[in-house]
Amino acid sequence: MEKYVVFTDLDGTLIDAETYSYEMALPAITLLKERHVPIVFCTSKTRAEIEVYRKKLEIKDPFIPENGGAIFIPENYFDFDFEYTKKVDGYKVIELGTEYAILRKTLKAISSSTGCEIIGFGDMSAEEISQYSNLDIESAKLAKMREYDEAFLIQGGENCVDLVLDEIQRSGLGYTVGGRFYHIIGDNDKGVATRQLIELFSRRGPVKTIGLGDSLNDLPMLREVDLPFLVKKPDGSYDPMVSFNGLKKARGIGPKGWNITIKEILG
Ligand SMILES: [Mg+2]
């Protein structure tokens, strides 16, 4: 039987874009767990946010927080040695991203030079993040615990969006777009982290990788997997910015599409 590994985005993919519920995907999650298929969360969410979902779903596999900023691998998960940056709270961490303080400083400088207002999670209270994102206050607090990625909004219309994103590129850093926010990141993305983690899984023997996402920040991850799937947005459309040869379309919105896709592959 094929050894699968699932790489999945969370917001708008495994969990509903509005309600943050994974209810619709539970049958497929149960099936994957029964078959011992690793489920790797690859998301713009922070480690603190991801840990809540890992606990609720009893998933103990490695994960990739903050748009590929790092790979967190439970200490005894792989029974071979590999290079990592540091050990934290029972994880071996492979750091790929740029320090949060540097990302914040760059955004401040770009805001001054362009005259465009940039509001990052670091500028917002948990209450404000909650208003913008529909997260509850507790979750918003966890979303503020950022290490490798700053989520932000740009005020001042399309003109400012272009100006700010251009300046980020000129600074040598990168950006990506999630379901709700822009993200400034270092020289990393979900794809680089996914590729490295696939390499580790492959050391145990051949694997077939499945990827699921909904937005532009998932594109690099989807390009790295054997079976890439794009789920529908809440309005029933597919993100037009995510397109390449071989990309498959899941037949459903977010977690519903996730559930259908996994059941079809494993069924
Ligand atoms: Mg998403």
Automatic annotation (TrEMBL):
InterPro entries: HAD-like_sf, HAD-SF-IIB-MPGP, HAD-SF_hydro_IIB, HAD_sf, MPG_Pase_thermophiles. GO terms for biological process: mannosylglycerate biosynthetic process. Keywords: Hydrolase, Magnesium, Metal-binding. It is an enzyme of class 3 (hydrolase). Gene3D superfamilies: HAD superfamily/HAD-like (3.40.50.1000), Putative mannosyl-3-phosphoglycerate phosphatase, domain 2 (3.30.980.20). It comes from the Archaea. GO terms for cellular component: cytosol. Its EC number is 3.1.3.70. GO terms for molecular function: magnesium ion binding; mannosyl-3-phosphoglycerate phosphatase activity. The keyword Metal-binding applies. PANTHER family: HAD SUPERFAMILY HYDROLASE-LIKE, TYPE 3, PHOSPHOSERINE PHOSPHATASE. This is Mannosyl-3-phosphoglycerate phosphatase. The lineage of its organism: Archaea, Methanobacteriati, Methanobacteriota, Stenosarchaea group, Methanomicrobia.
